Amino acid sequence: MTVTAPAGFDAAGIAAGIKRSGAMDLAVIVNRGPSNAAAAVFTSNRAKANPILWSEQVAADGRVAAIVLNSGGANCFTGPEGFQVTHRTAEAAAGALGVAASDVLVCSTGLIGEQLDGEVVEEGVLSAVNRLSADGGGDAARAIMTTDTRPKTVVVERDRWRIGGMAKGAGMLAPGLATMLVVLTTDAHVASDVLDEALRAATRITFDRLDSDGCMSTNDQVTLMASGASGVAPAPADFAAAVTEACASLAVQLQEDAEGASHDIAIEVRGAVTEDDAVEVGRSVARNNLFKAAIFGNDPNWGRVLAAIGTTNAPFDPYLVDVSMNGVRVCHAGRPDAPREQVDLTPRATHVLIELHAGDASATILTNDLTHDYVHENSAYAS
Amino acid sequence: MTVTAPAGFDAAGIAAGIKRSGAMDLAVIVNRGPSNAAAAVFTSNRAKANPILWSEQVAADGRVAAIVLNSGGANCFTGPEGFQVTHRTAEAAAGALGVAASDVLVCSTGLIGEQLDGEVVEEGVLSAVNRLSADGGGDAARAIMTTDTRPKTVVVERDRWRIGGMAKGAGMLAPGLATMLVVLTTDAHVASDVLDEALRAATRITFDRLDSDGCMSTNDQVTLMASGASGVAPAPADFAAAVTEACASLAVQLQEDAEGASHDIAIEVRGAVTEDDAVEVGRSVARNNLFKAAIFGNDPNWGRVLAAIGTTNAPFDPYLVDVSMNGVRVCHAGRPDAPREQVDLTPRATHVLIELHAGDASATILTNDLTHDYVHENSAYAS
């Protein structure tokens, strides 16, 4: 049920004809209320797609009635015509739903630099609105897939209220603020400023710490909409915890479906002076192609970990650092420790622990390995 | 003749038994004078190998009598024992050559985190010193190869003086200051402060702008030694130009032999506000795996160029940017321009031109594509 698990939301996912393959490519999600409170976070990439430019304006007042999402084209760097298509998308949904266009978010994903056909999108929106239903969440989650091999969905249950969610993303997975298209819904009664605070707190330690391939998208958007239909107003801290739980689940699902990956790597950094330092150190490893290729080859090449973290500005002494891989400490105080033959890197789930011995802060970055399949999928994406 | 092309230098390259394969793995280069002036630049990675820790001290006084280089082991993160091996290497060369150990540089390259056998290295040094000759430069260039498929050498001829050089490097090619092991020699009579200035000016616009895989080495070192044997003291500007010419040639040779690469990509950024901005923009593209994989697939995916440069802090408007690939302008003012089918990316030499329209500064970054062979070579390096 995903985004339609909470009361007050209808959704649909259809094949509008945007994708040449004929696969599903357009989703609409509507908040039937009684509340229309919402919050959203957007990519921090300065190269922003047209739907981001539009949606930033729509979300600014903390009120969203509906969201239209399309796969099959990013509508990014498509000029004023491209912006017109985004605007027309919102107008079409607004007209059919009887809401204001300024309350309709638009999200797009696919190839950058190609025009979407405004007429095809508009007809798709009308068709999707006609099929809206309280169990359309599954179709919506499938309609936003690009190179994803499966839909990503989540439901978090609480006492008389719920959070539902869906996500897409398999490449260009690195944080701007968000790192993909995500829609979260809840039937809790929550004001938009509380939604905003909960969403930013959650994305900061979930999607923002997923760095599959170091490439920041132009189209990322995470939206949280509250219908209030349950009549329950949870305590802000409880609500924030539930949002974080939903985001963490979706982040792991995105990692597990990353393009071509054969390992899901959790890089845990401990003993940093600050949490930001821990994130910087973890990210330097997550973005090191030599490390990522070594993990693909089941090679516990800890030297590449140290070479990567040595490029950061985080305060620590490289010659005090310990590195463990899947529970085996292969480097102690900057020297070889257990023989690398003891490390088993054949499981898909991989844990790298880096102990900096500089402070008490920690953070975990999620990434993937660099594989033949990643290169293959991304060398042929446009064709 | 490479480093032995200038008068006053002897060199040797031998198989000392460090590499299990029995290939050549140790080189010695001696400056016979009359001058021993020298300058060196080192990796800015904080994770520094033992030979870097040693050589930074040796080079500090602008005087170098000899340099010992080994492949087959980086001697990095090998603890105090590893530093002892570096020290012993310098002592062995100093004793055999009748110079001070504090005038002997040491360079190492290979796997991080494995001990070098001090006895094997010492015997190798003595054996190499016995074979020093004025035409040993070719052997020296071969002895420092790791995954390099061919030696990289250069000779720059001027009126009665020369610069000779050799380089190794095929992976972990991204600038700290230098990005690889490079030795340059000259028989010009040049004081060490002039050498230093010329070397830093040259590396800044050559090796520092080669960014093959974004991975900064722990062992990079570029050394320039002057024997003064020609008796000619060129004007500093003429000398600096010749050093830059030699470094530029070696940088291109390194790019052309980068691990697994199928394209040599020059990313030219024009219209930046400052040269540093141009470098930041070019580097963001050079380090974008999606862009690099697209070039491997002969796909002129300019959207990935814009997505990459949007992550920088350089001042420009993404919606004013033009992008050309191999002479075809595929993006104009942030919109699609010539059809991507017009771009021929089949040649190995690839030119990407990014016009920011923000100022008058420019810079070119050299990089490579991301290929199956890169992943393969680097997933199996340790085995």
UniProtKB/TrEMBL annotation, chains A, B:
Subcellular localization(s) per the UniProt record: Cytoplasm
Catalytic activity: L-glutamate + acetyl-CoA = N-acetyl-L-glutamate + CoA + H(+); N(2)-acetyl-L-ornithine + L-glutamate = N-acetyl-L-glutamate + L-ornithine
Keywords, in A-Z order: Acyltransferase, Amino-acid biosynthesis, Arginine biosynthesis, Autocatalytic cleavage, Cytoplasm, Multifunctional enzyme, Transferase
InterPro entries linked to this entry: Arg_biosynth_ArgJ (IPR002813), ArgJ-like_dom_sf (IPR016117), ArgJ_beta_C (IPR042195)
Pathway(s) where this gene product acts: Amino-acid biosynthesis; L-arginine biosynthesis; N(2)-acetyl-L-ornithine from L-glutamate: step 1/4; Amino-acid biosynthesis; L-arginine biosynthesis; L-ornithine and N-acetyl-L-glutamate from L-glutamate and N(2)-acetyl-L-ornithine (cyclic): step 1/1
Any Pfam family: ArgJ
Record site feature (Cleavage), residues: A178, T179
One MF annotation (Gene Ontology) recorded for this entry: L-glutamate N-acetyltransferase activity, acting on acetyl-L-ornithine as donor
Domain of life: Bacteria
EC number of this enzyme: 2.3.1.35, 2.3.1.1
Active site, per annotation: T179
Entry GO CC: cytoplasm
CDD domains: OAT (cd02152)
A biological process term (GO) from this entry: ornithine biosynthetic process
Residues flagged as site, Involved in the stabilization of negative charge on the oxyanion by the formation of the oxyanion hole: T109, G110
Record-listed substrate binding positions: T146, K168, T179, E259, N378, S383
SUPFAM superfamilies assigned: DmpA/ArgJ-like
Similarity-based family: Belongs to the ArgJ family.
Quaternary structure, from the entry: Heterotetramer of two alpha and two beta chains.
HAMAP family referenced in this protein's UniProt entry, alphabetically: ArgJ (MF_01106)
Function: Catalyzes two activities which are involved in the cyclic version of arginine biosynthesis: the synthesis of N-acetylglutamate from glutamate and acetyl-CoA as the acetyl donor, and of ornithine by transacetylation between N(2)-acetylornithine and glutamate.
Name of this protein: Arginine biosynthesis bifunctional protein ArgJ
Organism expressing this protein natively: Agromyces ramosus
